[in-house]
Design a protein that fits this description.
Chain A: Homohexamer. Chain A: Belongs to the glucosamine/galactosamine-6-phosphate isomerase family. The complex is a heterodimer of chains A (about 300) and B (about 375). Chain A contains eleven helices and ten strands. Chain A is globular and about 50 Å long. The two termini of chain A are about 30 Å apart. Chain B has about 375 residues and is an alpha/beta fold. The longest helix of chain B has 18 residues. Classes of the chains: A alpha/beta (about 300), B alpha/beta (about 375). Chains A and B meet through helix 5 of A and helix 1 of B.
């Protein structure tokens, strides 16, 4: 994990320029003793699902452009599946089609995959990523990494996934969602906050929630999955969590207003140096008015992070 | 970009900016082709880490499976029922010309003829795949001579025959051979027809009912023996009657075995059948409709072009307009249903992965803009 002091920010050449400009914006409004707090989480509050998708996509776009990836310098992106990131993926595809962004030098690592369903099953996460992102952009297959739920040795598959992340140089930005029970990836309540990529048995709630994708037939729903661990995501240099909808509101409250607790695994990110939570108004319904007002008040600063970048 | 060559080194073409007919719907999807077949791009991406070598921009056109015409008697001056000195050349000419109408496979059809014609023509016309030279021949359609006198239509009376020698013997005597024969139209009320229907069906030859005065029970018995098609519904058969619907009643008959579908050919030119009748048939049994041209020699020739040639061109657009059905249903009636009838859906009539890449590119008014066979462009407007 990376820890920055203010001095390091200014002289470290590897620092992202967006972060620097944000730093400078903060420096103007935030006196020196409070600058340490800039490196804890940001809560971005937008009006609705569509705005969340757009803000997140712009944030990713700007990150990649500022990183300036090339053949020897890939941008490593962690990605989720599910309903929440769909809007963000649609927007990324739009930006790609407009020529604003290329995925040629981007590598991706997905969070999870079901065990035991065929890779081309319409509900597999391979199919999800192909249909909702990969087939629309210029990413190369060899730069995408999704856990193989049909591997002969599942434990080895998980270990080699961790090794691949390490070999790629670690994840620059891990994008994730949150479950109604506060889980990140398939790290269900009770998962160790130090966990790494491993095989997980799914909670009954998750199986019930997934049944709608398997014709309502509980016997067809996978009961196990491979998932990155909480610590795997914590290792990323930056984390962005997308939360939309009122059914996620209580989980968001538990994640940021209560303590770090393995029953609400997303709460671990309170101890990550650079986390962004992007949510819509509905998802804030369980937060204190004070919290919401504070972060809404910062939006004019935070929105600078997604401004279109000047052409090179 | 080349793949990791784990499966094939052949070049890959990606059709982009198009709407394809898949799962009975027009969907905004790209179509991938390799080695003349439709390719699964997800498998290509994950297994082979591959992508396209070339892209074809379809500019928003519709891609449908190539049309299959199961009843076409000739065209452009060629009559398939003539034993000319160049039978193959004649078939080839028509095969080439029908590419302009999006037809990628067809059954050259022979009307009632004397045995020597059958012997000559059938020895020359072989099943073969299509390509740049023309549409593929799936086999011949022998319409007659085992048909009803009362419903001979335009067929010559003196060459009509019956199963007087018991059935198959008559067939072999008349036709000479059953090789390269894909379909036979006969009248099931003729004595001894049951054995013939069963035998032909067993040999994989489609048996069609037509030019017949059969009642519904006779027609149902023929279907139970293996018949699966009706030649130009309504024409050359008894009209629908509410106490005995005749062959037309097969569309809604409950005597058809569960696992079988009875298909019916329709010439949707507004002339052979009133459009209201066409709609009745379509609504009664939409999945069985097969569009045919029943085109004759005069098709495509300048003087006849307006009335006959135009039928052919307008058929797709006319059907969609006349029947009031969706574009998808119209396209399937010309591609998927004939393929289902002939039992060749594994490679023809669909855009499923692994099928032959016989394609037709159409605009929204269902005009043919380009035709492809095995992934190769064989005609462009």
């Amino acid at each position: 994990m990376y820890y920055y002091t203010l001095q390091e920010d200014l002289i470290n050449p590897n620092q992202h320029t967006a972060f620097q400009s944000e730093n400078n914006a903060f420096a103007r409004i935030c006196p020196a003793p409070f600058r340490a707090c800039m490196r804890t989480m940001k809560l971005i509050i937008l009006n609705d699902y569509d705005q969340v998708g757009e803000w997140a996509a712009k944030y990713i776009r700007n990150k990649i452009i500022n990183f300036n990836p090339g053949p020897d310098r890939f941008f490593i992106l962690g990605l989720p599946t599910g309903g929440t990131p769909l809007g963000c993926y649609k927007k990324l595809i739009e930006f790609y089609k407009k020529g604003e962004i290329s995925f040629k030098y981007v590598k991706t690592f997905n969070m999870d995959e079901y065990v035991g369903i065929p890779r081309n099953h319409p509900e597999s996460y391979h199919s999800f990523m192909w249909n909702n992102l990969f087939k629309h952009i210029d990413i190369k297959s060899e730069n995408t990494h999704i856990l193989d739920g049909n591997a002969a040795n599942l434990v080895e598959e998980c270990d080699s996934f961790e090794k691949e992340i390490k070999a790629a140089g670690g994840i620059d930005l891990f994008v994730g969602g949150i479950g109604p029970d506060g889980h990140i990836a398939f790290n269900e309540p009770g998962s160790s906050l130090l966990s790494r990529t491993r095989v997980k048995t799914l909670a009954q709630d998750t199986i019930l929630a997934n049944a709608r994708f398997f014709d309502g037939d509980l016997s067809k729903v996978p009961t196990m999955a491979l998932t990155v661990g909480v610590a795997t995501v914590m290792d990323a240099r930056e984390v962005m969590i997308l939360i939309t909808g009122v059914h996620k509101a209580f989980a968001l409250y538990k994640a940021i207003e209560e303590g770090v607790n393995h029953m609400w695994t997303v709460s671990a990110f309170q101890q990550h140096p650079q986390t962004v939570f992007v949510c819509d108004e509905d998802a804030t319904l369980e937060l204190r008015v004070k919290t919401v007002k504070y972060f809404r008040g910062m939006m004019h600063v935070h929105n600078k992070l997604v401004d279109p970048l000047p052409p090179k | 970009m080349p793949t990791n060559k784990s499966v094939s080194k052949a070049p890959i073409t990606q059709f982009v900016n198009c709407r394809i007919l898949r799962d009975h719907k027009l969907q905004r999807e790209d179509l991938w082709v390799r080695e003349g077949r439709i390719l699964d791009p997800e498998k290509l991406f994950f297994d082979e880490e591959g992508y396209a070598d070339q892209r074809v921009d379809c500019e928003g056109l519709i891609i449908a499976p190539g049309f299959i015409d199961v009843q076409i008697n000739g065209g452009y001056g060629i009559d398939f029922s003539q034993a000319t000195s160049n039978v193959r050349g004649g078939v080839a000419l028509v095969a080439k010309k029908i590419l302009e109408h999006g037809v990628t496979s067809f059954l050259p059809t022979l009307v009632t003829s004397p045995p020597n014609i059958y012997h000559k023509v059938l020895s020359e016309v072989k099943v073969h795949s299509g390509g740049v030279e023309g549409a593929g021949v799936l086999g011949c359609h022998l319409e007659g001579p085992f048909i009803s006198l009362e419903k001979k239509g335009a067929h010559p009376e003196q060459y009509l025959r019956s199963f007087q020698s018991g059935g198959m013997l008559d067939l072999i005597e008349t036709y000479g051979t059953l090789d390269n024969v894909a379909m036979v139209t006969l009248a099931p009320e003729l004595p001894n027809s049951e054995k013939v229907v069963r035998e032909l069906a067993q040999r994989g030859i489609t048996v069609s009912l037509g030019h017949s005065v059969a009642n519904l029970s006779q027609a149902e018995e023929a279907v139970q023996n293996g018949a699966s098609f009706i030649t130009h519904l309504f024409n050359a058969m008894l009209p629908f009657h509410h106490r005995d619907p005749g062959i037309v009643g097969l569309l809604t008959s409950d005597q058809v075995p569960q696992d079988r579908t009875v298909f019916y050919g329709m010439i949707a030119d507004g002339i052979h059948t009133n459009s209201a009748a066409l709609r009745i048939a379509h609504r009664a049994h939409p999945t069985g409709l097969v569009l045919v041209t029943d085109a004759i020699t005069a098709m495509g020739l300048p003087p006849g072009r307006h009335t006959l040639g135009q039928q052919v061109i307008e058929i797709q657009g006319l059907h969609a307009y006349v029947a009031g059905c969706s574009v998808e249903q119209a396209l399937e009636a010309a591609s998927l249903h004939p393929a289902q009838l002939l039992g060749i859906t594994r490679c023809k009539g669909t855009l499923d992965y692994g099928a032959d890449a016989d394609l037709v590119l159409l605009d929204d008014a269902i005009n043919v803009r380009a035709t492809y066979i095995a992934g190769q462009e064989v005609w462009r407007k």
